Amino acid sequence: MEAIITCFHGGKETIVGPLRVSNRGTFGSGYYGGDLACAVEFCGGDDADLICLEMDIKKPFRYRANFDHELDFDSPAVDMINAIFGPEEQSDVLATAMQSDGYFGNEVQERLLELGYDGIFVDYGEGAFESVAFFPDQIHHVSTHTLEEAKLMLRPHATKGPAL
Predict the structure, then answer these.
(1) C-beta of residue 47 within 8 angstroms of C-beta of residue 11
(2) If exposure means fewest CB atoms within 10 Å of the residue's CB, which of 45, 105, 128, 133 is most exposed?
(3) Quick one: pLDDT at residue 100?
């Protein structure tokens, strides 16, 4: 099932050139985008840009974010890690993230690729979402906006992502 996901990416500065890959992130390595409100929140200042992009993810791993788990680890990805890794690997992957920066690396992307997925779609509920593409050719730049323009775009409604 192919998914073209329209999403946004908020930068810490003026964005020049293509979106850069995140080597570590909440859901592992990849190219991150999310709903408009999330991207505005991640914009780093008045000189920051926000880009609108389309992610062409042919087979996304669809996941509903959940912070309700038994670990003392404030991550919405714990249940996803438990779903895609075996028990021994789960412990190793989670321990590595918990003992470092709280993020996951290439191990998530590699496992999902082994399982036949080429990206991730995370639903936080109420229209909030995050998506992660694994390859640069999955990213298509649509437009670039200043932070002020993006804030105006939030009125009168928030952008909603595709339903799970």
Answers:
(1) no
(2) 45
(3) 92
Dump pLDDT digits (tens) for 41-50. 887 777 778 8
Domain map (residue ranges) of the chain? 3-154
Amino acid in the structure at residue 106: N
Helix, strand or coil for residue 65?
coil
Q: Which two tokens stand for residue 55?
A: 């992610």
Cβ-count burial of 1 within 10 angstroms (0-12 exposed, 13-18 middle, 19+ buried)? Answer: exposed
CA proximity to 40, closest of 139, 132, 153, 163: 153
Q: Calculate mean pLDDT across residues 150-162.
A: 65
- Per-residue pLDDT of 61-78, as tens digits, reads 999 998 887 877 889 999
What 92-95 contacts at long range (C-beta under 8 Å, 24+ apart), as own/partner pairs, is none
For residue 31, the cross-strand partners are 133
Exposure pattern of 68-87 as b/e (b: 16+ CB <10 Å)? ebeeeeebbbbbbbbebbee
Give the pLDDT of residue 17.
Answer: 64
Phi, psi of 111 (to 5 degrees): -65, -45
Farthest CA pair distance, the chain: 48
pLDDT of the residue at 27: 96
